[in-house]
Recover the amino acids of this structure.
């Protein structure tokens, strides 16, 4: 199964960029990398996803390594509302089941 | 409306009780999911319904019994639970399965405590 590795926690100052890494060295060539986040007392919500090239949306950017063994979620200007657990998610090979990584708890300092 | 609602928000039940969790969506999604999330852990998939039929059961104990009465509703019936079943139970929906994960919408969850 594709397995992800994420740091347990990270801190950032408000209004500064945040880079959240995810290692997925066993990813298959056709699997998308998904990022969701879970705000306190809420269910997970979609942030971004990508396959090979870098992706941007209104929430974040996703930088994917050329060998696809790692990716980085980039929040360009962290706000207090971005404090959450960020999950990197991959599909279990041969199934349609998606496995959440252990997640990175992001703390944003005012 | 991209909302998935779950009731109740909190539930405390004894090990001999029978209770049910309810999930509802009105996005016209045909796939619905139950996840279990223990404290400080990621969500883990329990069940998947596709077009109101159970398509995935992740070897969940029979004390958890899912039901999908129609395309908008998903229930999780609980009976003879153990204290270790205490967790946040999340419901999600997506347009169809198999589907790219990014299309899943999650509810806020029901926090279950088994005493």
């Amino acid at each position: 199964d594709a397995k992800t590795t994420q740091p347990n926690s990270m801190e950032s100052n408000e209004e500064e960029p945040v880079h959240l890494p995810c290692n997925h060295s066993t990813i298959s060539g056709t699997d998308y990398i998904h990022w969701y986040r879970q705000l306190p007392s809420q269910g997970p919500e979609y942030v971004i996803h990508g396959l090979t090239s870098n992706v941007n949306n209104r929430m974040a950017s996703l930088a994917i390594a050329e060998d696809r063994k790692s990716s980085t979620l980039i929040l360009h200007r962290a706000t207090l509302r971005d404090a959450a657990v960020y999950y990197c998610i991959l599909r279990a090979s041969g199934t349609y089941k998606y496995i959440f990584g252990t997640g990175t708890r992001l703390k944003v300092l005012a | 409306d991209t909302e998935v609602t779950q009731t109740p928000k909190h539930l405390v039940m004894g090990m001999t009780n029978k209770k049910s969790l309810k999930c509802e969506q009105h996005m016209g999604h045909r796939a619905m999911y139950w996840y279990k999330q223990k404290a400080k852990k990621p969500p883990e998939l329990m069940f998947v319904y596709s077009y109101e039929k159970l398509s995935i059961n992740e070897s969940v104990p029979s004390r958890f019994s899912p039901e999908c009465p129609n395309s908008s509703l998903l229930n999780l019936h609980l009976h003879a639970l153990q204290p270790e079943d205490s967790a946040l139970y999340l419901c999600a929906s997506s347009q169809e399965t198999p589907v790219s994960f990014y299309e899943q919408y999650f509810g806020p969850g029901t926090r279950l405590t088994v005493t």
Q: What stands out?
A: Chain A touches chain B at residues 32, 34, 41-46, 49, 87, 89, 91, 96-98, 100-103 (CB under 8 Å). The mean pLDDT of chain A is 92.
